[in-house]
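## retry 2 of 3
previous attempt timed out at serialization; input unchanged, resubmitting
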Amino acid sequence: MQRRPASRLGVNGPEEVKQHPWLKGFDWRNLLNKEMKAPFIPSKREENYNSNLKNYNASDEDSPKDRTQLLKMEDVQNFFSGYHFSRERKTVNQTYIPTKTTER
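## retry succeeded, writing output
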């Protein structure tokens, strides 16, 4: 992890990332052609499996209305239980309990 963007891997283009030793032997052509097998397929028996999303289509992402409807689903909202977003502090805290309310 590099804090300065100018020092990050890929700042000189995608070839820099492709040539990194950690990715040596990676089949970029297979990825581009969408022929790769998923390294992990979640089990339908797991607690966090949501059968309501099984018919989700990536093209739905083009519609803000569809995204809004998806986010309103109770099952999706349950993923965020226990989290609080503070606009003032611009942070996300787990089980955050505000100690003082300030008005501006």
